[in-house]
C-alpha cells in the first residue's frame, strides 16, 4: 500500500502545535488604511482551527 500524501496547500496554511492546529487570519493583506489599529492588532493575534474542523484538517495533513 502506498504512503499517504500530505495536501501541500494545507501544509502551507496550517502549523501543528502541541494541543491545537494554528491557522492564519484573513483580511490583513491590503486595504489596511481604513482598518483601525486595534482591528489590525487582533488580526495579527494567533488563531486556531475550530474543534469542528480539526479532524478534516488532520486528514489533509496525514496526521490521523
UniProtKB/TrEMBL annotation:
One cellular component term from this protein's GO annotations in UniProt: cytosolic large ribosomal subunit
InterPro entries: Ribosomal_bL35 (IPR001706), Ribosomal_bL35-like (IPR021137), Ribosomal_bL35_CS (IPR018265), Ribosomal_bL35_sf (IPR037229)
Keywords for the protein's UniProt record, in alphabetical order: Ribonucleoprotein, Ribosomal protein
GO molecular function terms noted in the UniProt entry: structural constituent of ribosome
Cell inner membrane in keyword set: no
Coiled coil: none
Keyword Ribonucleoprotein on entry: yes
Alphabetical GO biological process terms: translation
Family annotation (SUPFAM superfamilies): L35p-like
Regions that span the bilayer: none
Similarity annotation: Belongs to the bacterial ribosomal protein bL35 family.
Protein name: Large ribosomal subunit protein bL35
Organism of derivation: Helicobacter japonicus
Amino acid at each position: 500500500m502506498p504512503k499517504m500524501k500530505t495536501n501541500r496547500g494545507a501544509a502551507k496554511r496550517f502549523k501543528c502545535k502541541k494541543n491545537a492546529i494554528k491557522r492564519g487570519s484573513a483580511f490583513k493583506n491590503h486595504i489596511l488604511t481604513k482598518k483601525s489599529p486595534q482591528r489590525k492588532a487582533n488580526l495579527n493575534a494567533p488563531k486556531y482551527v475550530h474543534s469542528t474542523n480539526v479532524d478534516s484538517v488532520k486528514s489533509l495533513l496525514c496526521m490521523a
